[in-house]
Write a structure and sequence with these properties.
It is built from 4 helices and 8 strands, in the order H-E-E-E-H-E-E-H-E-E-E-H. The chain has 180 residues and is of the alpha/beta class. It has 2 domains: 138 residues, Trna Endonuclease, Chain: A, domain 1; 38 residues, no CATH class. The longest helix has 23 residues. The model has no long low-confidence stretch (mean pLDDT 88).
Length: 180
């Protein structure tokens, strides 16, 4: 069975144009984490959720969140359908044939993959393009400079975590500052 990291790597290598797209993995936005989050050259964003099991797929429709300001509760896909969502497009990346296409809501794109373990090759097929959720580019909804600072900080954290795995380092507790 292919690991998620290998699947992400194969998807990025075969499906992304890094001269025109930004690919973020495990990117937190709004109230949840996107497995893959693509931002194209025009600023339009596409969240792609990887689902490797039927139960994981079904759980995506049970995700409930509470608005911190109003206390209102909502389901993730109700928010997406209502257009009150940061991404312009939303798709599922699934193993081939795992979920019948007619069981996937029409607002969701469907990308299926097949992993040939004998040759260690993964192919991707766009089954259905996602519907556009709204017309507002991602960069009109997000502070680009703050995102870049947070990404740079995340890289620093990962580097230090990796370094501390091979040698003992002592760090004070540090939180990302509100200002840089």
């Amino acid at each position: 069975m292919i690991k998620i990291e290998e699947l992400v790597y194969n998807f990025a290598q075969s499906q992304c144009d890094f001269e025109k797209q930004i690919l973020l993995t495990n990117h937190y936005h709004a109230d949840w984490e996107a497995d893959l989050f693509l931002i194209d050259e025009y600023g339009f964003s596409h969240e792609i959720e990887i689902k490797l099991s039927k139960s994981d797929y079904n759980n995506d429709f049970k995700k409930c969140y509470t608005n911190a300001h109003t206390g209102e509760k909502f389901l993730k896909h109700d928010k997406i359908l209502g257009g009150d969502y940061i991404a312009n497009f939303y798709s599922f990346l699934l193993p081939m044939g795992m979920i019948p296409h007619n069981k996937i809501p029409p607002h969701c794109g469907i990308i299926e993959f097949y992993h040939d373990e004998d040759h260690w090759e993964t192919t991707f097929n766009m089954i259905r393009n996602p519907q556009k959720i709204h017309e507002t580019p991602y960069w009109n909804l997000v502070d680009k400079d703050m995102l870049l600072r947070r990404l740079a900080f995340k890289i620093l954290q990962k580097k230090l975590t990796q370094k501390s795995a091979s040698e003992q380092l002592i760090f004070k507790n540090f939180k990302f500052p509100n200002r840089i």
